[in-house]
Amino acid sequence: MKTCWKTACSVASIGLVLGGASFAQDYAGETLVVGTWGGDIERLLREHAAGPLEEATGAKVEFLLGGSGDRMAKLYAEKSNPTMDVTFQNIYEAPQALSDGLVVAPDESSEIYGDLWEGMNDGCYAMSLVGLGIAYNRDLVSEPVEWADMWNPDYKGMIAMAPYPSSEGDGLLGVAARLEGTDEHDPDVAFAKVAELGAPALNYTSLDEVFALMDAGEVAMAPMISGYVLAALKEWDNIGFSFPTDPGPVLVRDMVCQVANSPNPELAKMFIKLALSPATQEAYAEELLFGPTNSKAELSEEAAADTVNTPEEVASLLQLDWPYVISQRADWTDRWNREVLGQ
Amino acid sequence: MKRPGPKHYLLAPGVLLVSCVFLAPFLLLVVLSFWTQPEGTLLVEPSLTVENYLRIFSDPYYLRGLARTIWLSFATVFFSLLLGFPAAYWIVRRAVRLRRIVMALMLLPMVCGALLPTLGLVNILSPLGIINGSLKQLGLIDRSIPLLGTQTGILIGLIQAFLPLMVLPLVAVMERLPLALEEAAMSLGARPPQVWWRVVMPLAAPGIVAGSVLVFCAALTSFVTPQILGQGKIATFAAMTWQQASLVLDWPFASALAMVMLLIMAALACMVLGFRRLNWVRP
Fold first, then answer.
1. B226 touches B238 (CB < 8 A)
2. % of chain A surpassing 90 pLDDT
């Protein structure tokens, strides 16, 4: 019943979001291609952005599902003749795509730009806010859990990490550098500190994989991104998630980008507007615990407690110099392979 | 010189297809491997350079990766031969009624693709898998023994995946060996090991060479099995190529890595052709 009501509200609000029904059926026969992640994200986008857009315009929305790296590869491969209109990328990818001219810069004069929190739209529009914190086994690690605990010799070889390159890996390097009194601009210190952790117990590619090993006591801690993790943790009693304070969690953002020279730029803009609308952002926060970037989004108390959703919270998070981090990507991947994985 | 007649035009659709879907991308890959990616961009600059190749052959990390991959490939060939030769002999000489069933079972890993058997192995080798679980239940260990993310784990997966490539050529060759040859050797006083070593093995040499080349090339370029069983901890050359192409998006360098792998296989093919010319592997 709640879902039906929400859908009805979404459909009702579509007219307002898209600025009336003046273009209804104008785009019949057109297909908007949106590249994004599968699962819940696709479901929510289909429900709150694609469905209403199709209804209002007569166009068809086709989702291209996969990892953001695949989409980056597609953007570059198709740079002279793109087939995607909208793509969802990570913060460590979007600024690079903009500087290479593959995506359209966010329109600062647009209404939706004004609704999004200041300083978040690097390269593309910021879609959601999450923090890199620590997932941990409650039986093995005593609370409150701080970053420095990962370097406790008792847990050597019991730390799981995401494969590099990734937001998680860059975030961990930024944290390691700060623990040593410097920042990510000093990669020698950052890599030396991360290398002290030893080879990871697991290079995780899925949440289930890391939680199963954490539950069994094979993995003690893992730097992980809130959102999905917090939503999934409700099924695991002995696994906790910490937003550390010294330094704070690393701010990570998912971005939504309009592909440059795409076949359907107008539909792309409409889709992005819907994706960034309070309705979609609220659904992201309530169901996935992804913090909204739209300042007009209103959250329940429960969702507000588990998401990054106020300018003050954003300010308390650690922000990396992403353009610099991105420029180091190739070199740092080599270093991660050698110094962290010991290959 | 005979001019191509109309029947040769029947080759045209196949040649066209191969040209479009294989040769054209391949040539692009060759050219791309000599291009560069300037700093600060992921776009490719079409200026010819051998920088990518110099990087591969001057960087110990990539040389170690290459050596590791070649070693794993040779080890896969060795163990596949060790397991595959008796299996092929048994299929040809002994498995009269069971032959079709055994051959079907042998082909199964190839038919169902690399992913399914590899994921099955993950369930056996993982920290929560059958081996570690049994050892824990028996109280023999407290914490799991790492089997995934090791070269041994990858080797087990590669042997399992590519054993059919060894067995099938061996079966094809052994089928054509008259049993009378072995019986003649026995009647002249040769003991079974001598029959194997001095009669069966030399006559099966073409099958051994064909199987070894197939297994070596498959293991050298294998990506799914080492990636899943290596858990991202053991970098093979194919995994390094994938990382550069899909994650770092340095396509010129990834192309150069792929070309090096291809050159190794080409060198191997030339060696085999050379052996054939010298008549080393003919029955």
1. yes
2. 75
